[in-house]
Amino acid sequence: MANEFKKTMNLPKTAFPMRASLAQREPERLRKWNENHVYEQLMKKNEGHDTFVLHDGPPYANGPIHIGHALNKISKDIINRYWSMRGFQTPYVPGWDCHGQPIEHKVETTLGSEKFNSLPAATIRRICREYAVENVDVQRNGFKRLGVLADWDNPYLTFTNDYDAADVQIFKAIFDKGAIYRGSKPVHWCKHCHTALAEAEIEYGNEKSPAIFVRFALRDVPAGLEAFEGKTDVIIWTTTPWTLPANAGVALNPEETYVAAMIDGRAEILAEALVERVASIAGWEDVEFAQTAEGEKWTATGSDLLGMTYTHPIFADYAGKFIVADYVSMEDGTGCVHTAPGHGVDDYNAGNKFDLPIIMPVDDDGKLYKGEGIGTGGIFGGLDTDEASPKIIEWLKEQGTLVAHRDIEHSYPHCWRCKSPVIFRATSQWFVSMDKTGLRQTALEAINNDVTWYPAHASKRISSMVEGRPDWCISRQRSWGVPIPSFTCADCGETVLNDETLDAVIALFKEKGSDAWFTDEPASYLGDACECPACHSHNLKADKDILDVWWDSGVSHTAVCDNRPELRRPADMYLEGSDQHRGWFQSSLLTSVGAYDEAPFKAVVSQGFVLDGNNRKMSKSLGNVIDPNQVCDTQGADIIRLWVSSVDSSSDVPCDMEILSRVGDAYRRFRNTLRFLLGELEGQFDVDQMLSVDDLEMYDKLVLARMCQVHNEVTAAYESYKFTGVYRTLYDYVTELSNGYLNATKDRMYCGGVDSHERRSAQTTWAYILNMLIHDMQPILAYTTDEAMEFMPEGLKEGQEYAALLDWFENPMDEAMVSELLPVYEEMVEVRSAYTKAYETALEEGVVEEKTTQATHAVVSAPEKLVSELQDKVDMAEMLVCSSVEFEVSDELSVKVVPAEGVRCPRCWNWRPEAEDGLCERCHEVLADMEK
Ligand SMILES: [Zn+2]
Ligand SMILES: [Zn+2]
Ligand SMILES: [Zn+2]
Q1: Ligand nearest to the CA of 489
Q2: How many angstroms is it from 357 CA to the middle of ligand 2?
Q3: Which of 109, 212, 502, 655 has its CA 20 to 30 A from that of 257?
Q4: Cβ neighbours of residue 279 closer than 8 Å, sequence gap 6 or more
C-alpha cells in the first residue's frame, strides 16, 4: 500500500544486510582480524589487569576437526571473550597432543608393519613428528575458521624440547617423593599393538565369550566330610579359559555358605545360593547334598575352607589354594572363582594377600609359552590366547572335568587404537603408586576442597574414579613418546635411576629433545652420573619404554602454564568432554598433586558428547556425521557458535541438519532485531542526542528497566558457564521486543517529528537495547556482532573497531530504579495480554471490523492499585498499538475492545479525531514543522 506521505516519514535505512551470507562474509572478516591482530590487541587492551587463564586441553593431532572439537573450542572462546569484556586479560595458548599410539599406529599402517619394524626408532619418530605437524595445521585452520581467538602462531606442542624436559622434571619430582616404582602387575595389554594400555586407552564393547564350569579335584578333605568316601571337587567358573594354565587359586566369599552337591557319586562344592542356577545350566536334576557323619547336610563358609588345596586343572603335579575375597558375588557362576594373579587386577590383589604366585605364561604376542609345567602353556604352548580357549575347553571335556559350557555376551575392554579385545597380563612396568605417598588421598582432598566443578556433580564422578583406580601404569612399549628416563647396567642388570641421572636427562632433553635418547650414548650426557650404584660399572644402557601419552598431556600445567610467562599455574579453568574425567583431568590432577601437592586447576567445566538428533553416536557408517568445516562453508561459523550456546552441554548434546536449520531460524531472529534497531539509528542518531534516563518517556523507562533485568540474567548465566541460559534469555528477549516494544514504538520513530522529544526518547532506548544486545551476544555471535558494530552509532563503539574489544555493557539505570519500575512494566504486560485476547474475541464477534488494533479503543477494568500506577502515567495506547485507552476500577483485570472513534490518519494510519488537511493532529504538526 503506497503512502503518499512516505517522504515525510523517518523510514528505516541501514546498510546492515538482511541476508547474512555468513559463508561468504565470515572469511573476509577473519582475514581482517588476522591482519589487524585482534587477539594481540585484546591482550594489549587488558594488559596489567587480572588474568583469567583457561588452559587449553590439547586435542590429539590426528585428522580433521569434528563437531566435538567445535563444541569444545567454541565453548572456550565464549568464556574467554566474556571474561575479556569484563576486563580480564585472557591469554589463550592452544595446544596439541602429538605423541602416542594413534599416530604411531597410523604411520605403521601407512608403511606396513614389516617396513615399520625394520626402521630405527629415530626414523619412526621423525615420520611421526611430520605427521603430527601436518595435522596440527589442518586442525588449526579449522579452529580459526570457527572464530576462536587464540595465540595461533605460538601454540604448545607436546614434542618440543622444553616439553620433553618438563615430562622428566615431573617424573623426578614424583620419583623423589617415592611414588614411582617398577613392578610386575597385570595391566591391559594389546597383543596386536604390543603394549600396555591405560584405562583411558580402553574402549568397552560387547564381546561373546565362553563361560565354562570346571571341576578341580580337592587334595584335602574338608572338615565334616571325613566320612565321605568318594571324590570331592570344587566347581569353578570362568569366562577366560585361556587363563586356566595361570590358575593359582580359587577365591570364595568368606561369609557365604557352601554346600557339596552329589553328582555322579562325587561331592561338588559350590555356593548354596547358586546351586539352583548351576543345576539348570549343567542339567542336574533332583540334586542331593553330601552329608556329615551325623547325617546332616554338610555346609561350610568360605572362611572355613580357606587354605585347602586342589590339583591344578592342567598341571596335575601342581597344587592350587583356596583364598577368600569380598568381591566374590552370588550373582553369577558358582561362588568359587578361578584366580590367576597374572591376568587380573582383583586376582592380583587378592593373590597378594594370600601369597599366591604370579603365574604368567603369555608372551607379548599373546601366545602361551612353549614348555612343560607351571609357568608355560604346557600342551597348549605356542597357541594364541584366542586359539587356546576352544582347545582348552575341548581338552577339559575329554578329561571329564568340564561341568558345563555356554557362551555369554558381556562388556569387554578393547584397545582404543586397533579396536581388538585386550587381555590382562602381568609384565614388568613402571607405576605411580596411588597410596605409598598418599597421592590418592591428597588428590581426593583437592577434588573436593579446592576445585569448583561445573556441573557440580562432576566432582563425584572423578572422585569415584580416583577412589577406585589401581596404581597408574605409566610405561608403554612403543617409540613415539618421551622415554622413561631409566637405565640398566649392562654388567649386573641393575636399574639405574637417581637425581643425578634425572638431572642429566632433563638437561639433555632441554638441549636436544628426547630424540637424543635414541641416538646418543648415555656416557656422553650422563657424565659422572654414568655409574651403576651396585657394581660401579660405567656401562649403562638407556631403557626402551616410553611414558604413557596421558602423562605428556597431563604435565602441561608445568610444560605450558609454568613455562609460558603470560600463563600461570594453577590455571583458572580446564574445560573438556566428560571422558576426560578418566583422561586429561585425571592425569593433570595426579601429576600436579604428585609433584606439587595441589590441583592444576581452580575450576573444571565438563561437557557431554555430541550425538545425532536421535541420540546415536556419530559415525561414518550411520551417515550422521556433522562436519563443522562443511557447516562453515554453507551456513557459517556463527550458526555453529549459536548452536553451541543453544544446547545444555553439561550432558550429551544433539546435533543434526534439522537442528542446525532451527538454529538458523533463531539466528535470523537475532539478526533481524539488530537490523531493525539499526534502521532508526544508523546515520540518524548518535550519543550526543541521547536523553538522560530521567528525561525519557515513561514507557521507555519501563522498557529499559526490563532490559537491565535481562542483562543481569545474561551476565549471571555467563558467569556460571550456562551458555544455554544466555541463549534462552536473549532469544526470548528479542522475541518479546519484536512483538512488543519495537512494534509499539514504530509509530513514534517513523511518524514522530524527526527530533521530537518522543522520537529522541525512543531512539535513546533503542540505542541502549542495540548496545546491550551487541555486547551480550558478542561472545557467541562473534562474526555477526562484529559486522553489526560497523553500522552502529560511532559514540557507542567505545573507540573500538572490533566487537571483541568492547568492555562489558553497564546498565544505564541503578538497581533501585530497576526494581521500582519492573513491577509496573509487568502490569503493562499483563494488561497487554488481556487486551490481545479481548481484541481477538471482538474481531470474531464482529464488534470491530477493521483488522488492525489501531482501529480500536480499549476499556481497561482493573484494581485500583494498577489503575493508579498506569493511568495518566504511561501511554498505554502506544503499548497496545490502539487508538485510545480508558481505565475503570474493578476487582479483577479485564479489557473490553470497541471500535475507535475518529478516522484513519492517511499518514500514520492511527485512528484519531480528524484535524485540518485530513491528518491527525500529531501528523499535522510534524508536517507544519517541516515546512518551517
Ligand atoms: Zn591395539
Ligand atoms: Zn651394575
Ligand atoms: Zn497521523
Answers
A1: 2
A2: 28
A3: 212
A4: 261, 285, 287
